[in-house]
Amino acid sequence: MSVILVLVAFSVVLAGGFLAAFFWSVRNGQYDDTYSASVRILFDDDKPRETTEQATPAAKLMNEQLPNQ
Amino acid sequence: MTENTAGRETAKNTNECYHCGEDCGTVPISFREKLFCCNGCKMVYEILSQSNACDYYKYEVHPGLKAGNGEVGSRYAYLDNEEIRGDLLEFTGDGVSKVRLFIPAIHCSSCIWLLENLQRLNDGVIHSSVNFVKKEVVITFHDARISLRQLIEMLAAVNYIPQLTTDTLQKEAKRKINRGIYYRLGVAGFCFGNIMLFSFPGYLSVNDAVENLLRQNFGLLNILFGIPVAFYSGSVFLISAYKGLKKKFVSIDVPIAIGILVLFFRSAYEIISGTGAGFMDSLAGLVFFLSIGRWYQDKTYQALSFERDYRSYFPVAVTIIADSGSESIIPIKNLKTGMRILVRNQELVPADALLVKGDGSIDYSFVSGESSPVARKEGERIFAGGRQAGASIELIVEREVAQSHLTELWNQDMAGMEKSTRWDSILDVISRYFTVMILLLSTVSGIFWWCYNPSMAFLVVTAILIVACPCALAMTYPFSLGGAMRVFGRNNFYLKRTGVVEALSRIDTIVFDKTGTITRNDGFGADFGSLAVSHDQLHCISSLVRHSTHPASVAIYRQLQGFAPLPVTGFNEVPAKGIEGHVQGHFLKIGSEEFVTGTKTMTAAGGRVFVAFDDEIAGFIGISNQYREGMKEVLEELATRYELHLLSGDNDAELPNLLAFFPSRDHLNFNKSPREKLEYIRDLKARGKKVLMIGDGLNDAGALRESDCGISIADDIYHFSPACDAILESGRFSHLPYFLDFSRTSMRIVFISMGLSFLYNVVGLSFAITGNLSPVVSAILMPLSSVTIVAFVTLSVFVSARFSKFEGRS
Questions:
Q1: Which CATH code, of 3.90.550.10, 3.40.50.300, 3.40.190.10, 3.40.50.1000, is assigned to B482-520+628-743?
Q2: Chain B: residue nearest A5 by CA?
Q3: B679 vs B381, B672, B705, CA distance in Å?
């Protein structure tokens, strides 16, 4: 039964790791601006397209409708 | 924050500007099959499409703000000055620089996208990141490829104009964000979870060797976890209680601090001596909940500033003219007496100076409250803070910026600002009685048990101090008022801190400023009574004034709705004088009396715009202050409950109109200097009034500070507003009575929940006094009371906001 003491020791160390991770994230500024990140993740990570404006009207319409989904 | 869903539904409406979403009117500008309301918006679109940045329009429909005329010119020339550049940059070296800019226009996800993709617009930009909450963007760029001036001009070109004032240059420590609350909350939560697990064996009454081993070791672990809870996470309360006591002030933190200390030391004693399981779980829960309360209470609007002084009103640089006649730009702090400066149209006079060249037409509305621009001739003195409206003028500086009339007024106000008796919050009053009562109760029951059963005395006294710890009481205030503050924030009424809700609920007297507060800053009313013209001629006037952005022209155009614009040829605008042009074969002149008639008679205060058709004078249009929408209703509503006063820095030309709004003539005061305004408020307070001051300009700054609660009203909340307790967006002025009602509702919720938390305390105390407070009872009672109180309060605030008259959306 005293093996539980060893397990407890492990669990405390593990939980301490998560606390450390939390400290890191605060120090890293992740809690300074909680809004931008939620938007940033939705941006398409595309390379600048050369032909954005030469697209056909139909394609443009598609483009405009994308955010609706 | 975003109104994307609403925006998308109306996206199919064809007459909306592709960029900003405003109605394009009858003559939209068409470009690449898209409609634009003005050239500014079209230009922004052109720049973006050339840079393959049209994704900007993908994330929000109509993400732009209506652009100005887009003329940047040499406005930012001062950024080439080495010293100013150095002051603005956060870092520079190895050909790479970093700058942090405050851009009030940041408002939606498209803004974030564009500002983080600046490298598409110019490859000199290396990296840029937006802090949406603070409306800041940090940009790193190659000096060789793009200069700071070019960078800011580029931002201005796409209508993200950074705000650059003297204040921006202060590299204050204010920038540092306080992250301590997150650390403390994290530690408390972490320990709370662990301690609860380790406390569990203590609650089981099994009694074998293994269980005892676990119990002992877990007890020691609990002490280990309890130390950071009490002395790191709980340090805020301990320190605040200590500081308060040193000033002989008993705040709510005193009984909390006593509770924390007693909990910790009694638990440690019980665990080490083996006499009990201790209350470490209660301690951790207490500190965790209280920290949540602190975090909720400390919400601030980071992009807003409630502490502004004149520095954030002043520009960064000023153009000086050397003896040789050459112009150069220097930082404003280097401005010395005797220098000759150039002030262009719409620029600010930065220091007290003598006008030496040009006609001054100085708009002092923000500084003194005078509503119409003041004309100044060569040889006359101009005080700092006025804005030139008209052609460029040249001045010789008489006093340095820090000694100017305006700055002195500010410093003087601040010197006399030993805030005469800050009122006590209801929480302070209650906690004072509460603490005394608890100490009394514990002493009495301690003495009783000492006589009856001495071994119990220590246990009972500590149990009382533990159970009386006003956790639930301390949670009511931050959660109800913090909730109310958020409701206000959603409705464009921004409070500096939660305590302002209580201040609002207590006031009985309201003092208004006139110019810019109850009158609109942006608009004047036009009166056509003195104009003898035909319908067709009105049509011509409408077509001509459409081309001018002068406030009077805008007011006239607004009154003459419904005319399709006629073509205008030979349009010419003479700054500060008037406009002229040919419409349908007629030559029109609209403007000042001197400009139109060639003569100048002394007329009474209040503007008159003269009109001439083919050099034949047709009369004049009266231009007067326009009151905010719903003014009459607001004042009528407020008059039933509050005493209303008016403090104006302007003359009494508007008195007849104002008498219709204000019940008593005695409360209307005109020609008041900022100092007199402050003293007026002080006088009202001396007569026992609780005063709410509502103002907008620098001239109200002293009065706003002196009042029990100062609200600054602003068209654009991110631009300059004087130091105050709350900022109200001018469009919400008509909701003022409802806001005040809601502050009282919130306080009622506070009172009810305080009553509830007292009930919990009575239950707890009955356990404690009889000597029956076990760790289990405490561990149940404490979180139960906190959670129910928080739930009750949050729900009540939510429901009452839902039923209030101002909450438009559900």
A1: 3.40.50.1000
A2: B214
A3: 27, 10, 11
| pLDDT over 60 (residue B112) | yes
What tens digit of pLDDT does each residue of B539-590 get?
888 888 877 666 677 778 777 766 777 778 887 777 667 788 888 888 888 8
- The total of other beta-carbon atoms located within 10 Å of residue A56's CB is 8
Highest average pLDDT, of B146-160, B183-197, B399-413, B687-701, comes from B183-197
Which chain B residues contact residue A31 at CB under 8 A? 179, 182
Q: How far is B11 from chain A (nearest CA, A)?
A: 10
Nearest CA in chain B to A50: B52
Domain B315-400, CATH number (from 3.30.70.260, 3.40.80.10, 2.70.150.10, 1.10.3720.10) = 2.70.150.10
Pick out chain A residues at pLDDT < 70.
1, 45-69
**Cβ-Cβ contacts under 8 Å, A1 against chain B:** 210
Q: Which residues contact B66 (CB under 8 A, 6 or more apart)?
A: B17, B20, B22, B37, B38, B40, B41
CA B106, B292, B237, B418 torsion: positive or negative? positive
Those residues of chain A whose CB sits closer than 8 Å to some CB in chain B are 1-2, 4-5, 8, 12, 15, 18-19, 22-23, 26-27, 31-36, 39-40, 42-44, 46, 48-50, 52-53, 57, 63-64, 66-68
**With a cut of 0.85, is the ipTM above it?**
no
Q: Each residue of B236-272: pLDDT tens digit?
A: 999 999 998 998 888 888 999 999 999 999 999 988 9
* Domain B482-520+628-743 in the same topology as domain B315-400: no
Per the CB < 8 Å rule, is B132 touching A42? no
Distance from CA of A53 to the nearest CA of B (A): 7
Instruction: Establish, for the pair of chains A and B, how many residue pairs have beta carbons separated by less than 8 Å.
Output: 90
Interchain CB distance below 8 Å, B186 and A49 = no
pTM score of the predicted model: 0.79
Residue B452: its pLDDT value, please? 86
> Which sequence spans correspond to the domains of chain B?
4-59, 178-298, 315-400, 482-520+628-743, 521-627
Interface test with B, best of A18, A23, A35 (most B CBs within 10 A): A35
Pairwise CB contact (< 8 Å): A52 & B183: no
Second-level CATH architecture of B521-627: 3-Layer(aba) Sandwich (3.40)
CA distance B174 to B176: 5
Q: Do A33 and B132 touch (CB under 8 A)?
A: yes
Is-contact B166 B315, C-beta < 8 A? yes
Q: Which DSSP state fits B425?
A: P
Q: d(Cα B643, Cα B462) in Å, to the nearest integer? A: 50
Taking CA atoms, what residue in B is nearest to A24?
Answer: B183
List Cβ neighbours of B440 (8 Å cut-off, separation of 6 or more): none
Query: B112 and A48: CB-CB below 8 Å?
Result: no
Instruction: Tell me if A67 and B58 make a contact (CB, 8 A cut-off).
Output: yes
pLDDT at B606 over 90: no
Residues with Cβ within 8 Å of B118's Cβ and at least 6 positions away in sequence, in order, are: B125, B128, B139, B154
